[in-house]
Specification:
The complex is a heterodimer of chains A (about 350) and B (about 150). Chain A is an alpha/beta fold. Chain A is built from ten helices and ten strands. Helices cover about 30% and strands about 15% of the residues of chain A. Helices cover about 40% and strands about 20% of the residues of chain B. Classes of the chains: A alpha/beta (about 350), B alpha/beta (about 150). The interface between A and B is large, with 49 and 44 residues.
Chain lengths: ~350, ~150
């Protein structure tokens, strides 16, 4: 459970944001401005939140905010016909911008409730800090029964132990180098901009990619083939991605059949490369695919590299501008062409 | 699991190269090379497409995973596209594919892009020669070998 504890008499930032979200939801639903309000509510497991679809103002008290609010809620937007209010973090709003650019949702049907984000936690990192195997709440030796979130740390409680972890040590990798913690577009901003995490220079996010690119070619190929071989082709990464909204995905097509589930590594590679190309110039590194992957494939390295290539070759950053054309629907005469014979 | 994309090619090995040629320029360029009796390696298997913009990067990847040793995509020169901007749009996709393959550890020389006009029979022959030599030098890709069966 995410119990919010304030510092003495002063209310914590997270508490202020949570109150703000609840008030905004109540106001929007009461005035009829939106038909449904999408936010987060407590999950059934410690440090888990689940998407909440609120339609009555009274239910707004279910809404919560904290570092476990990891889902990118914009994934649900194309499914709604009416007006929707949605809670977005700095990364989520950029996928929302892409959905608007690509005419999947209309700007006037969505009320963007922006939250200044201070980063979300990565359960895999918590597991590593605890030194246990499997999901933290189901580990054999020390299962975590409940968790409290304070301003700077997590307090995990289990049978006969209490463990405090600094939030900064278990932040999701994409949050550590986040360049846009404050939503770039919003109708309502909860709290104020000072509540967000300090924005990093976007170059900071490319350190890992640059280091990897310096490896030998065979080492790179071998790394990816080892990672991708673990893929069980569940396509959870595709389902979690707000930008994978095709009614029929290329992986599901029977004619032509692009991907088989029995052919093994070569088709898994084809799927992963295809996925990267489909989100090229659109991916905002929200990390939804990585969190959804049940076998923990390093999906981020490829998308992050693509982000870097797009930025360097076309000076384009996904999801920042609501009035431009998507990257691959536009061109410039002076685009790079040194690779063409 | 694969440790390298390429294996040592057997002796006298001839690569199979799939060439996607745009109907309006490169295909006519290849035709000109033929009518002009210009010699070029017989390793290319030509697939005619309406425009280089029609070529989905997935088609290129699919060729590689189903046994092609190299891929060539050729279209009209910038500004000459029959559909005004198909090749400009294709150029962006190909630039991304090129970088992605390189980062993934697949050699740059497996997939080639070129602009060949209907009047450039000589250039088409040169491009094919160059592509064939590069692919041959790189050996056989393992990606094609592990899925060489034809069950569908």
């Amino acid at each position: 459970m995410n119990k919010m504890t304030g510092n003495g008499t002063e209310k914590g930032t997270r508490h202020i944001i949570e109150e703000g979200i609840r008030n905004t939801a109540t106001k929007m639903l009461e005035s009829g401005e939106v038909d449904v309000f999408i936010g987060y509510e407590e999950g059934t497991l410690p440090l888990r939140t689940t998407p909440a679809f609120i339609t009555c103002p009274e239910d707004a008290t279910r809404l919560v905010w904290g570092p476990a609010c990891e889902n990118n809620l914009t994934v649900y937007l194309p499914k709604f016909q009416g007006a929707v209010g949605v809670v977005v973090k700095g990364c989520d709003v950029r996928t929302l911008t892409n959905l608007i650019l690509e005419n999947q949702i209309s700007r006037d049907k969505v009320k963007i409730v922006g939250v200044p984000c201070s980063g979300i936690i990565d359960r895999d990192r918590i597991r590593k800090v605890l030194g246990t195997e499997g999901p933290i709440e189901r580990s054999m030796e020390r299962p975590v029964r409940s968790a409290q979130v304070t301003e700077r740390s997590l307090i995990l409680e289990g049978d006969g132990f209490e463990f405090e972890i600094q939030l900064e040590d278990v932040l999701a990798p994409s949050c550590e180098t986040c360049a846009y913690p404050i939503p770039v577009v919003y109708d309502v901003l909860i709290g104020d901009e000072s509540m967000a995490r300090h924005a990093k220079d976007s170059e900071a996010g490319y350190v890992e990619v640059t280091r990897f690119a310096e490896l030998e070619r065979d080492a790179r190929f071998s790394y990816f083939s080892r990672e991708i071989e673990r893929c069980i082709q569940c396509y959870a990464c595709r389902q979690a991605c707000p930008l994978c909204y095709c009614p029929e995905c290329f992986t599901d097509r029977q004619s032509p059949k692009w991907i088989s589930r029995w052919r093994g590594l070569s088709d898994k590679i084809l799927f992963h490369l295809g996925r990267i190309l489909h989100v090229a110039g659109r991916c905002v590194d929200c990390g939804a695919c990585r969190r959804a992957c049940p076998v923990g494939i390093d999906l981020r390295l490829l998308t992050k590299n693509m982000e870097k290539v797009v930025k360097e070759s076309f000076e384009y950053e996904s999801g920042l501008d609501i009035d431009c054309l998507p990257l691959l629907a536009a061109y410039k005469r002076e685009d790079p062409d040194d690779f063409i014979l | 699991m694969l440790d390298s994309i390429s294996a040592k090619a057997p002796e006298n090995w001839e690569p199979k190269i799939v060439a996607f040629l745009c109907n309006w320029c490169s295909y006519a360029g290849a035709d000109l090379a033929g009518t002009g009796r210009i010699q070029y390696p017989p390793n290319v298997r030509v697939i005619r497409v309406p425009c280089s913009g029609r070529v989905d990067p997935l088609m290129i990847l699919k060729c590689l995973t189903r046994g092609a040793d190299g891929v060539l995509v050729s279209g009209c020169h910038p500004g000459d596209c029959h559909y005004i901007a198909g090749n400009y749009l294709a150029r962006r996709k190909f630039a991304l594919l090129d970088e992605l393959l390189d980062f993934f550890g697949i050699e740059k020389g497996r997939v080639h892009f070129s602009w060949v006009s209907a009047a450039e029979g000589e250039k088409f022959a040169d491009v094919v020669k160059q592509v064939t030599e590069t692919v041959k030098a790189q050996g056989k890709p393992c990606l094609g070998q592990i899925c060489g069966d034809e069950r569908g």
